[in-house]
Amino acid sequence: MDLKRTHYIGSINQSLKGQKVVVGGWVEDLRELGKLTFLTLRDVTGVAQVVVVGEAGIKQVKDLNRQSVVRITGAIQDTKSRDFPFEIKSEKIEILSRAVHPLPIDPIGRLESNIDNRLNARALDLRNQKTAAIFKMRHHVLQSMRKTLVDLGFIEVNTPKIIGSASEGGANLFSLKYFDKQAYLAQSPQLYKEQLTIGLERVFEIASFYRAEKSHTVRHLTEFTSVDIEADFMDYLDVAEILEKLVTNVFEYVEKNCIDEQKILGIDIKKPKTPFEKITYKQAIEELGKEGISLANGDDLLDSHLRKLGELHSGFYFLIDWPMKLKPFYIHEKEDDQSLSKSFDLQYGYLELSSGGRRLHDPNKLRERLTEQGLNPSQFEDHLKAFDWGMPPHSGWGLGLDRLMSVLTKIDNVREVVLYPRDPERLFP
Predict the structure, then answer these.
(1) Which residues contact 43 (CB under 8 A, 6 or more apart)?
(2) pLDDT of 160-171, one tens digit each?
(3) Fold adopted by 9-97
(4) Quick one: CATH architecture of 123-417?
(5) Among 31, 162, 171, 422, whose CB has the most other CB atoms within 10 angstroms?
(6) Minimal CA–CA distance to 401: which of 236, 245, 209, 264?
(7) Boundaries of every domain in the chain
């Protein structure tokens, strides 16, 4: 059986009038009109109207269910339809796969389905143009990110996801038996990407990571995609500048390359203004105090506090110079005030998108910090020994791709922008 197509639908236009084409896709609609049958055919690039003529052809599609897959040979011709700039007059119809009805959801969107039903039939849901637009846009976001980082001299790496110790000393880890050993799913590439700067200097990774948090919110997942960088000879504000450039480049790239997707989703993407505002932790505490929220220096900022800050600072902004007590063991202190860290979070309103900072590169200080935080340095010896091999000063960050997609698409529920999301209840499909 010949499966080749001569054209994607999106590449066909009126200039091909009279030319024979072979197209393939799924049947979105069927309409009988006298001695003619009109078939709406869609592929990943677009939609076209096919005119089925002749007794044999009409009989062939008479009992064809919508969403069935066909391959059609026909000629491009003018159309009287207001919805299509051309139509295809069929000469040959091959039915490649029949859709069995009733389908679990209506992918055209005429009948709305809730998010859980759509996720249960995610592959079919991708025939919904709004859903497809999200993931086409996500593709472009990834293209932009990789281009930005490669142009800045970063090398893409892949770190292990099955690890032997807690990468950041946290408790929210999935544990598993690795033959006769205890293992965990990585919650970040933190320790590995730091080590890799010894030889590769600037590295980045875009990959899935895992956190065993029983969070039931529209912004938390147990498996998420993180964009991570680490760079030698950079301080924390240097890598914050790279993060700002990466985010603004994403908006600019999507604005130019996802025009159809924006129309489908009903959004208008514009490059955010730069530079992003920088607010110190101390300033945030003072601002919250003026709003009647009393916090002591060193208190963590809860979701309710961040929501209030988000009302005061719309769009993107950095929260910088957090207290050391609130940061992981590997974060570097400020030279002029050792109670504060060289760290930042990138916020969009109340939503935290990224966390980063300068890292400790002195192994003795690292061992001290591990002990201070109640962690056993011996469990990190595989990591710490690399710091005796000439570890350069370095900084980095991790960015939640899924949350950035929520911001970009103006969709609140992060599960909408992930193909097969994992949360405390969802393990299938």
Answers:
(1) 8, 9, 10, 23, 24, 25, 26
(2) 999 987 766 666
(3) OB fold (Dihydrolipoamide Acetyltransferase, E2P) (2.40.50)
(4) 2-Layer Sandwich (3.30)
(5) 422
(6) 209
(7) 9-97, 123-417
